[in-house]
Structure to design on (444 residues):
């Protein structure tokens, strides 16, 4: 029984004849639910913390629920493993990279199973290939193609056993080799597993107690959101908020997996609900703007005096696409004499040097006078589904930023967000300004 992860939802609790868990988890769960609990690197950073994780798991198992736990590697472990691969050979075989970096999760899955057993809870570890969690062959950044949840379910039914699943890893079926899902991928493992075993919800335990209106390190008055829609969370994650891997949110959205972000540092016997990521219809209070995100991994490229004629944009951006370089904001200025123009665009800072080299090498073909680049830029974005029905939302931001003397280098907008590119020196001022402009500050 393989669950193919295709758009359109999964068999879900309703199909299994189990009452749907009420949206408010403060309301008692039904007598028996099926849960996926995911714990990130800081939550399993040492054996003591793993013991704390086990207490959270025990609470749910004692309540009679079927529990599958997905774990990350101990914090810092994956970086260390990646570092060793680079040290061994700067250019290395991606299949062997996966064999090395998947090991971090093997350790924590085994340790958590041991600690649970010691607490008297039936538990068994599962590596990706044992479940199996199947992926495509893109080693290092593999995508899950299917999960057979039947083995885990059988162990729930026959032994009331907690499944401890190594996150981040899977198996490429044709070659039977271990694969990994890209950095932060255990969030995606957890959401995919929730869909595959028809669990009622996916609880992502992390070192913060939910999703905030912005980074609390920048704005101490940032508020924790009770709920955020899938669409908004997808934008927040893509635009710089680091709580969840972007793919996990995409998957939660298409599979309609109700996902909570909550803290593993809460008292295991008295945990708080955290933030629920859910359908728009399940959100009652609607702010125009829900959150402010920022991303420092941006670089700006400006080509001056480019010929203003058909085909020039293609000459610039097709080679970028061919080199797998994501271009985000694009502005074209029409010059006075209308024979040349300036084109400005942004790329991820990791692609900056490569993008410049490609442009320089096709300089004659594109025909530009100079190339200017900047990496001391930041993209600040405001996200909210309320933007669909309100006019002038972005205009207010432009005015507020102008009043603070912040120059905007580029702007993009879409249905539920807008972004501005500014000098990175103004990051904090801009984030704070927008956060209070849209009424997101916590009442003091
Ligand atoms: N350990 C992996 C990483 O650091 C996967 C994860 O933690 O989600 O990227
Ligand atoms: Mg993570």
């Amino acid at each position: 029984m393989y669950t193919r992860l295709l758009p359109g939802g999964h068999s879900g609790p309703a199909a299994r004849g189990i009452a749907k868990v009420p949206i408010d988890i403060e309301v008692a769960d039904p007598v028996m639910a099926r849960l996926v609990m995911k714990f990130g690197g800081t939550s399993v950073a040492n054996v003591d913390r793993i013991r704390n994780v086990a207490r959270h798991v025990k609470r749910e198992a004692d309540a009679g629920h079927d529990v599958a736990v997905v774990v990350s590697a101990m914090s810092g472990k994956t970086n260390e493993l990646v570092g060793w691969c680079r040290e061994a050979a700067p250019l290395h075989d991606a299949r062997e990279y996966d064999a090395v970096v998947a090991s971090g999760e093997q350790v924590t899955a085994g340790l958590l199973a041991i600690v649970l057993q010691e607490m008297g809870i039936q538990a068994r570890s599962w590596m990706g290939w044992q479940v199996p969690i199947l992926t495509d062959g893109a080693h290092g950044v593999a995508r899950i193609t299917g999960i057979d949840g039947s083995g885990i379910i059988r162990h729930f039914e026959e032994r009331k056993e907690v499944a401890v699943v190594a996150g981040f890893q899977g198996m490429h079926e044709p070659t039977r080799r271990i694969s990994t899902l890209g950095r932060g991928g255990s969030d995606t493992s957890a959401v995919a597993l929730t869909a595959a075993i028809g669990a009622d919800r996916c609880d992502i335990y992390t070192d913060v107690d939910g999703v905030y209106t912005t980074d609390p390190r920048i704005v101490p008055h940032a508020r924790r959101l009770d709920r955020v829609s899938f669409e908004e969370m997808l934008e927040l994650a893509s635009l710089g908020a680091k709580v969840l891997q972007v793919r996990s949110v995409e998957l939660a959205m298409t599979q309609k997996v109700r996902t909570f972000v909550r803290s593993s540092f809460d008292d295991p016997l008295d945990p708080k609900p955290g933030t629920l990521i859910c359908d728009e219809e399940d959100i009652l209070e609607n702010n125009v703007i829900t959150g402010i995100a920022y991303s420092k991994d941006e670089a700006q490229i400006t080509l001056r005096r480019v010929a203003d004629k058909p085909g020039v944009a293609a000459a610039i951006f097709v080679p970028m696409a061919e080199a797998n370089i994501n271009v985000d904001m694009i502005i074209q200025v029409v010059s006075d004499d209308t024979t040349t123009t300036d084109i400005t665009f942004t790329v991820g800072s990791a692609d900056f040097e490569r993008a410049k080299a490609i442009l320089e090498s096709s300089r004659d073909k594109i025909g530009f006078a100079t190339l200017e680049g900047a990496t001391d830029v930041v993209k600040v974005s405001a996200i909210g589904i309320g933007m669909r029905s309100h006019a002038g939302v972005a205009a207010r931001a432009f005015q507020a930023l102008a009043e603070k003397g912040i120059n905007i280098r580029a702007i993009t907008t879409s249905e539920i967000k807008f972004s501005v590119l500014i000098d990175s020196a103004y990051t904090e001022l801009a984030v704070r300004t927008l956060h209070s402009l849209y009424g997101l500050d916590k009442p003091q």
Summary: Residues 40-41, 72-73, 78, 104, 167-168, 183-187 surround aspartic acid (ligand 1) (CB under 6 Å). DSSP finds 14 helices and 19 strands in the chain.
